[in-house]
Amino acid sequence: MKARDPKANHKPVRKAVIPVAGFGTRLLPVTKSVPKELLPVVDVPAIQVVVEECVNAGIEEVIFITGRGKGGIEDHFDFNFELEKILEQRGKTEELKRVRAISELIRTIAVRQKKPLGLGHAVLCARDVVEDEPFMVVLPDDLISSQPSVTTQLIEVYEKYGQGVVSLMPVPEEEVSSYGIVTGENWAPSLHRVRTIVEKPEAGIAPSNLAVIGRYLLPPEIFDYLEGLEPDESGEVQLTDGLSLLAKERALVGYEFTGRRHDIGDKLGFLTANISYALNRDDLGPKVLKYMRRKIKEVDEPDEP
Ligand code: G1P
Predict the structure, then answer these.
(1) Pocket test for ligand 1, best of 17, 119, 239 (most atoms within 8 A of CB)
(2) Residue 236 Cβ contacting ligand 1 at under 6 Å
(3) How far apart are the CA of 171 and the centre of ligand 1, in A?
């Protein structure tokens, strides 16, 4: 795939679509009453971690695709006057600053996905708000720590090639059935021309071990492809099928990002994300490490006095 003329005009990536309507069934029972996006990564809701990733990458507006019981997500990015007043009265200036900064982070828009018709349908719900611009899709289950962030990495690839980009990560054979898996040609380090994507293939018949992870940079034409799709046998419109059409009729770049990914929609991934983010914090890292060392010692040497 040729790099485009750097002087060519292109629309900047200003909007990010974040689907948040899912039920979070892998994290039950807590998700019976708490949206999984509001579960903490140390002391910050997971959704704030991904919204900050967007803000730092230059995104100006996030579009939440929401569902029943998810109102707390919008509230989190809104002003909370009662709380601010109390913090002010009590002289808690640091806390006040932190709380206020969240409401000033970014413009948010919420669009309701009225039926659980899958990820492709969720993205399609954003059509009228995204209009005719390239945009990010950010799946908040995937927390990825890297410097620069994966969103920034994808925007850089997009600016170079001018085509849609999906983030890729090699996964072990036994895990391919949890992901969209791509076929294509590797034409430069970390870059693939995507030919097709198969949603959650069985291990034996997966075309490769390159999985699509929850960061996509898409051209507005994706909406036309999604609109023409029928739900699959599970009743869902798959984003994967829209992407395959985009790859076939236009072009799609697969980009192997650098960074560590945690699937926080899964119990183990949720825990590893918390440990990893805590270890990176100056206030908590050394203490958590000390605790972990003690625990490992207890497990390794149970009989030591
Ligand atoms: C979705 C996509 C899948 C992708 C995955 C990444 O699946 O359908 O193609 O590989 O996100 O996290 P989900 O995890 O929502 O079932």
Answers:
(1) 119
(2) no
(3) 13
- Decide if 282 is inside a domain: no
CATH code (residue 256): 3.90.550.10
CA angle 54, 12, 124 (to 5 degrees): 70
Asked whether residue 84 is assigned to any structural domain, the reply reads yes
Q: For residue 29, say if its preceding peptide bond is cis, omega within 30 degrees of 0.
A: yes
Give, using CA atoms, the residue closest to atom 9 of ligand 1.
Answer: 180
Structural domain boundaries enclosing 206:
15-265
The type of residue at 273 is A
Q: pLDDT of 194-224, one tens digit each?
A: 999 999 999 888 889 999 999 999 999 999 9
Instruction: Give 83-95 pLDDT, tens digit per residue.
Output: 999 999 999 999 9
Residue pointed to by tokens 């492809």 = 225
CB 192 within 8 Å of CB 254: yes
The burial class, CB within 10 Å (0-12 / 13-18 / 19+), for 137 is buried
**Ligand 1 mutation pick, 179, 237, 241, max ligand atoms within 8 A of CB:** 179
Half-sphere exposure of 305 (CA within 13 A, CB side): 0
pLDDT in tens, 111-120: 999 998 999 9
130 lines ligand 1 (CB under 6 A): no
- Based on the structure, what is the number of domains in the chain? 1
